[in-house]
Design goal:
The structure is a homodimer of 297-residue chains. The first copy, chain A, is built from 11 helices and 12 strands. The first copy, chain A, is of the alpha/beta class and 297 residues long. Chain A has 3 domains: 5-88, Winged helix-like DNA-binding domain superfamily/Winged helix DNA-binding domain (Arc Repressor Mutant, subunit A); 94-163 and 266-289, Periplasmic binding protein-like II (D-Maltodextrin-Binding Protein, domain 2); 168-262, Periplasmic binding protein-like II (D-Maltodextrin-Binding Protein, domain 2). In chain A, the strands form 3 sheets. The first copy, chain A, has a 5-stranded mixed sheet with strand order 4-3-5-12-6. Chain A is elongated and about 90 Å long. Chain A binds chain B through residues 2-5, 8, 45-47, 62, 65-66, 69-70, 72-73, 76-77, 79-81, 83-85, 87-88, 93, and chain B through 2-5, 8, 45-47, 62, 65-66, 69-70, 72-73, 76-77, 79-81, 83-85, 87-88, 93. The first copy, chain A, binds a DNA duplex (30 and 30 nucleotides) through helix 3.
Chain lengths: 297, 297
Amino acid sequence: MTVTLDQLQAFVATAESGSFSAAGRVLRKAQSAISTQVSNLEDDLGIELFSRQGRNPVLTPAGERLLAEARVVLDRREHLIGVAASFTAHVEHRLVVAVDELYPEKPLAALFADFAAHFPHVELELLFPMMEDVSRLVLDGKADIGVMWRQEILPAEIGFHTLGWVPLQLVCGKNHPLANGAIDFEELKRHRQLMVAVRSEGPEKQRLRTAAEVWWVESHWVILQLVRQGIGWALVPDHIIENSPVREDLVIPPLRFDGADWPVALEMVWHKQRPSGPAARWLRERFAAMRISGLPG
Amino acid sequence: MTVTLDQLQAFVATAESGSFSAAGRVLRKAQSAISTQVSNLEDDLGIELFSRQGRNPVLTPAGERLLAEARVVLDRREHLIGVAASFTAHVEHRLVVAVDELYPEKPLAALFADFAAHFPHVELELLFPMMEDVSRLVLDGKADIGVMWRQEILPAEIGFHTLGWVPLQLVCGKNHPLANGAIDFEELKRHRQLMVAVRSEGPEKQRLRTAAEVWWVESHWVILQLVRQGIGWALVPDHIIENSPVREDLVIPPLRFDGADWPVALEMVWHKQRPSGPAARWLRERFAAMRISGLPG
DNA sequence: AGTCATCTATCAGAAAATCAGATGGTATCT
DNA sequence: AGATACCATCTGATTTTCTGATAGATGACT
């Protein structure tokens, strides 16, 4: 004989319920069936799993250890069945999500943890594209769902939904001229501004442009590195400043003018024509239901 | 019916051998048995694993994915059986090894990789004790095997075996007075020496003492940090210097006297009276068979 | 101490699953 | 076209597993 899943099941049920009889009741089998199955398992493994001194069987040290192993084997069977079920339910086996770094990581991590619990069998690929355009990735089928900042013109094939607005902070290095005292709007124009090198052209690209001289940098993270060196000032979302390794060298100077949180709209995008499975739909709904840390949408 | 290990085995064998017939030959069963078992598995999972268009069955995408899962389940069964076998063979379930940092990590890692392959079911705990004495850990039963540098007096209950000698290098900071030019033995005595704070007293503790003024530090790694600051000079094994994060700031000055590699003997120790299982014996033999990077023992 | 409920191991027969071998049909190669 | 190797399916035989019964043992309770 060879070790059988039924044997392992009888073993685990016995360990969990505390007696062969109870295990029989749980598994809807006769007590004798459980008893012999566990006994056979012990013969196959060549080791005693339960000590049968008293009225109830009690795990031996070996039984204790092997119980954990048995649970693993049974879990893997359940997992296999789950994978098969997700195939028949036409759940995606793989889902690619492209998220702009503007989206705060903390709720993102919570969301994906939740996703993993709901769809344990779906392989998730997360992209944080730098220079590529999120909407282009979605358009080309390289990503199933995208989260990006607003682009005025989106192709008609792309569906979208506004998630909310992320407020930006004005930040500069602590040795930068702007770091001392409150800032005038006109003053801003005289210093170099660092902006993310947005990919597609359009009016949105220019909306935040304030200074005469602008450098284009591929990521907010890199921008902070440059800001720290005193190369210029920038508009960067809160959460990126918070989590920056160089945040001690950064200054958020007070402003002498209003309406100065420069909100940026975050959009969720997908391809209208590509059919989306249950996992993609679930993720879209959850994205839409979440509120961004800033103003609600 | 529920998914059975036999079914999975038939499935995997079919996928590996390319046909039901071949799988039957491999598993020493009739072709019909394999065929029906795979068919039953497909019914249970509710999905087609093989496409049966041509002469031979060929995996569907779902089959491809589930094949990996099936292999995992079968592997876990083998693992369980292996754990049980190691119980009956009275293999230790846990082995604690205390290694002095003098022992080079590279061969150590290779050795333990090998160990993991031979004894996959043994939990290994590795200690790199700082201030505690390795022989004391072994004596107290907190470690099964120890590798330490030679202590003249070892308790009688401790068995030991000399593994080899580790040569030490004289090292100092690049701004230290000794860093310029070849070094005289008398010169050494005038500068502060940093030594590892060895735990037990004994003549071995004093053997390497050269300077008048000595600081005792708990680890060679920390010693290098201090040496880098120019606090003193030290004798440190090669591999620790190599792997130090501060090695650019260190200098190994030339010496104007001979016999200056200060070899330190490494011993393997164990408790004679405590019975050792197969894993401990294997590890002892392999330790003994290895040559230290320096002179052979 | 005696009673009772509940547990375990084991047995025999019934029920179920699995297997081998035979058969017919089909794809592939020569 | 013929030969070969393969697959699906059927049937009866074999093996395994299950149930239900029985006897002995343990622990709780009076």
